[in-house]
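Cross-check.
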Amino acid sequence: MSLCVFALIASEFMPVSLLTPIAADLHVSQGMAGQGIAISGAFAVLASLSVSRLAAGMDRKTLLLGLTALMAVSGAVVAAAPSYPVYMGGRALIGVVIGGFWSMSAATAMRLVPSREVPRALAIFNGGNALATVIAAPLGSYLGSVMGWRGAFFCLVPVAVIAGGWQWISLPAMRVQGGAPGSGHVFKVLKRRPVALGMAACSAFFMGQFALFTYVRPFLETVTHVNVSTLSLILLVIGVAGFVGTALIGAVLKRGLYKTLITIPILMAVIAVTLIPFGARVLAIVALLGVWGLLATAAPVGWWSWIAEAMPHDAEAGGGLMVAVIQLAIALGSTVGGLLFDATGYQSTFIASAAVLLLGAFLAWLAARSQARQAT
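Predicted model, tokenized:
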């Protein structure tokens, strides 16, 4: 499952490190190429809200194997895409996999191990996420320079095939007793004010993050003027910093969950604005993006911890809704960021990112106040 997570995260965000050659080869703008992130997010939203209902009676092992096979198909379609619409179709397929897989991740862990081992199982799952964060972007950039962006995407196909084979051998049958809850139950949790505010804060955070991060490569190439080797190194710094952030965030969250959820987007908003005047200074950009990676990769751990605290009796419904919220936010963020990037340049994209991140911090503060009132 951890290997599958690695391949999935690498597939989802591979366009970030290959945006420039994709745009050039498909004869579209960099903003349009970035919509490959947006469409995968949009289809992930649809899948996360519907897959458990549509496949209510299906053995979960069969469903996971089908999703993993679809991931391999997506990589092959994108790698061979003769045109922009086919490229977008391949990206839509990976969106279906993202939504379906993450919606079932916690429930799968609960089926595979005793209840006392579930946190450890989820940590192993997310080990694939952390590993992909560290190496996928710089490796994608390097492979793109060696074998082209199509070759980089095709390299994901055998990884997905190996992950599928490993799952087929190792996973037990996971038959469903009765039907899965429909999407209507998922939306009922929004009737609680702290939950609604928290979901809005989470949405604003991811929207602000990906409005900027989706277009970090064209920024580094056109403003900082780095070559492919330096670009790969910067992406590696972001990934390693994110790995460190994921390792440290647990201790930080113990000192205050909401305080952390408020502080992280504020710091990232400051970085987004600071990148503009320091755009031509390589060392300053490396330092700023390193801190960005540390904060951005650690933040999702905080939001999943919030699910457990805010919805202890509805964690499954809240988790499914959060998958949809995050993917919709990624889609909106990369879309708005791309439109601004093409229309007025990177400055407006980065300022918009900072504004939305600050909105996320404000909404997290409102959620904290609402939760405190409810507790008294």
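The mean pLDDT is 85. DSSP finds 14 helices and no strands in the chain. Passed to J.P. for a second look.
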